[in-house]
Amino acid sequence: MAIKINIETPGGVKVDNAYCRIENISLTKDTLMFSVRNYVVPTKPFFSEDSLSCPYDILGENPFKQAYLHIKTLPEFAGAVDA
After folding, report:
1. According to the model, what pLDDT value does residue 10 have?
2. Is the per-residue pLDDT at 17 higher than 90?
3. What is the signed CA dihedral for 64, 68, 70, 73, rounded to 10 degrees?
4. Hey, what's the torsion of the CAs at 21, 55, 25, 10, to 10 degrees?
5. Dist CA 46 CA 70 (whole Å)
6. What is the pLDDT of the chain when averaged over all its residues?
7. What is the pTM of this model?
8. Contacts of 35 (CB under 8 A, 6+ apart)
9. In this structure, what are the phi and psi dihedrals at residue 55, rounded to the nearest 5 degrees?
10. Per-domain residue ranges for the chain?
11. 27/41 Cα distance (integer angstroms)
12. What local confidence, expressed as pLDDT, does residue 1 receive?
């Protein structure tokens, strides 16, 4: 599972169709914490990483699905498409 989106790095470099993948998930009974790693090409090292969290529904979808559904609601991921 991944999404693609155009990203501008803090240094001002524009990356079209950056491949964004959720990794490093950890859970508590009500919180889902994860990293979003951004890649130019999925087989190469990531160029940036953000740590995020969201509410976790233990009876809901699997944690990765919940994380992807959450990031798609955030303004910085507006316009993202499934990869």
Report:
1. 81
2. yes
3. 180
4. 50
5. 21
6. 95
7. 0.90
8. 22, 23, 24, 49, 50, 51, 52
9. -65, 145
10. 3-77
11. 28
12. 86
